[in-house]
């Protein structure tokens, strides 16, 4: 897998922006092919110490050495501090951050359960092994209900987000989620996830096809 560096990432982003100068590709008008300045590592470590978990190191390396959010799939990557603010109410934010240390427990989706989630039957039938359900939620009996151990990285739009498993046997893996408890495996690590997007962006034909 390609080792990510600021130079490598920004070269691809600059070339893509030269082709899509008006940022017309879906989501590009939000991130404009730019990365935010890196965040200080001490900020990340302070959150880990306060809430009793560790972020995957490839994600920490990215936001502290390359960019704290910005250019990424669809509407891009949220800045670290924005991903921590899952709810407007401070009590909900605290519950969300506390829940990150609890295992994200996923099990395969059964065919008969598909109607409960936003994923299409066609996409499921192509690769059913990628589809999961998170059954154990934090705060299921109150207004603040979210999946344990899952850190939202950004959004595809509508009700689809993508995020990183922080705790549990799937720690470090990236999934798309429909926000109803349905998950689709995307990559085995943050670096793999971001490299997949960079590989797509580095193919000029892909960008020109989207601009037609």
List keywords for this structure.
212 residues, alpha+beta, six-stranded antiparallel beta sheet, 9 helices
Explain the overall architecture.
The protein is α+β, with helices and mostly antiparallel strands and 212 residues long. The chain has nine helices and eight strands. It has helices at 6-19, 28-31, 41-51, 57-65, 80-84, 90-99, 121-126, 190-202, 204-211, and strands at residues 106-108, 131-134, 137-138, 146-147, 150-157, 160-165, 174-177, 182-187. It has a six-stranded antiparallel beta sheet. Strands 3-4 form a two-stranded antiparallel sheet. The radius of gyration is 17 Å and the shape is globular. The model is unreliable at 138-145 (pLDDT under 50).
What is the 3D shape?
globular
Largest sheet: 6 strands, antiparallel
Strand content: 15-25%
Helix count equals 9
What spatial order of strands do you see in the largest sheet? 1-2-8-7-6-5
Mean pLDDT: 88
The poorly predicted ranges are 138-145
Helix content: 25-40%
Radius of gyration, in Å, reads 17 Å
Q: Give the strand tally.
A: 8
Distance between the termini: 31 Å
> Structural class of the secondary structure composition?
alpha+beta
SSE string, helices as H and strands as E? HHHHHHEHEEEEEEEHH
Task: Briefly characterize the structure.
With 212 residues, the protein is of the alpha+beta class. The protein is built from nine helices and eight strands.
Topology:
Blueprint: H1 6-19, H2 28-31, H3 41-51, H4 57-65, H5 80-84, H6 90-99, E1 106-108, H7 121-126, E2 131-134, E3 137-138, E4 146-147, E5 150-157, E6 160-165, E7 174-177, E8 182-187, H8 190-202, H9 204-211
Antiparallel strand pairs: 1-2, 2-8, 3-4, 5-6, 6-7, 7-8
């Amino acid at each position: 897998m390609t080792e990510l560096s600021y130079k490598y990432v920004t070269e691809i982003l600059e070339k893509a922006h030269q082709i899509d100068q008006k940022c017309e590709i879906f989501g590009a008008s939000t991130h404009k092919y730019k990365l935010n300045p890196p965040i200080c590592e001490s900020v990340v470590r302070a959150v880990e110490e306060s809430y009793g978990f560790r972020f995957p190191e490839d994600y920490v390396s990215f936001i502290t050495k390359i960019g704290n959010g910005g250019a990424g799939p669809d509407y891009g990557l949220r800045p670290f501090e924005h991903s921590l603010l899952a709810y407007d109410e401070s009590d909900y934010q605290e519950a969300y951050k506390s829940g990150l240390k609890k295992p994200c427990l996923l099990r395969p989706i059964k065919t008969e359960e598909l109607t409960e989630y936003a994923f299409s039957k066609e996409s499921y039938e192509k690769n059913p092994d990628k589809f999961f359900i998170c059954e154990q939620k934090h705060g299921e009996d109150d207004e603040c209900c979210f999946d344990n151990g899952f850190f939202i990285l950004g959004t595809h739009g509508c009700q689809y987000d993508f995020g990183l498993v922080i705790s549990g046997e799937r720690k470090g893996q990236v999934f798309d989620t429909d926000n109803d408890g349905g998950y689709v495996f995307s990559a085995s690590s943050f670096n793999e996830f971001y490299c997949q997007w960079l590989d797509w962006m580095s193919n000029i034909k892909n960008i020109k096809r989207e601009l037609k």
